[in-house]
Amino acid sequence: MQNKNAGDYLEAIGRILTEKTEYDFTVEENEYGADLVSELPSPFSEEGRSGCAIQLKRINDDFFLFALRITLLSGLPEELYDDITAVSEMINDHIAAGTFKLERESGVLYFSHGIIIDSAAQKSEAALNIFTALSVMAATAENTAELYSELISGEKSAEAIIGEICET
Amino acid sequence: MKQKDIDLLAAIGERLSESGIAARPAEIDGIIVLELEGRAESEDKEFDCTVTICHPSEDTTAVQLLVSLFYQLDEEKAKAAASLLPEMNSFLEIGSFGCLVEGGYLYFSHSFFTDGLSEDSVLRCFAAYLEAVTLTALKGKKLLMPVIKGDITPEEADKDELRIVQF
Is 50 exceeded by the pLDDT of residue B49? Predict the structure, then answer.
């Protein structure tokens, strides 16, 4: 999709999302095209905000692909990478199997999820579908935040956390 | 299971049958699922996929597609394959690979929300998701095969070649 079209489409989706939530969704152009970005409440602190980005990619004439990302944590200590990956893989297997992906990139941990939307669908349909995914992603982030806090603070080991996830 | 979930699975099954993919309803652990068998034309490989409806939260509905790659691998092979999955998952837009080492089960799955979409949109999107999911699963299976067969160790695998471009 050409940048301008993608930007216009995202802007329309952003207006609907802004109306539905109390957060601003704005279009941000970058080297890859355009992203719809917002700052949602962080599950890690009441005052904090975590980034949310929605990227629109066109698959073909019939379908759009939206790539959703919610940042959970940034500035991860490098020495905990392996433990965090192990816990993330276990969480991936347990959170609504296959719904979201927990990923780590350059010290940032985030949830990602891809959505395919029929290009003939109304923008309001696409926005509601994206809103649902973001809501569930945010709720899941809240549920997993505690696990990472325990790991990063050293309160619990990766093995102990994985054991607890398996028991539930 | 809610009647509307059963109806949605039936509508998906009906639409798939029209496009030549065999879809059989079955019951697994009290849950009604749709078992699909078909051929991914661009790979010329057969796949089997299970479709279920789940509710990640009280008022949301998701359709889950799950393709089985390998069953009953011994623990050593399952662990070797599992160690490559983070790399394989890192560039995917749709779905992710997972592994249950106990039981030696490797799979690829993706769920999509139906909320907000008309039934026709859901059915059209389902076809697009199914294509992406089955092709990715088949590519993943091919990439993992040398490790499963013991031809190479995970350390010997070329990390760049483990990345799958979906679109």
Answer: yes
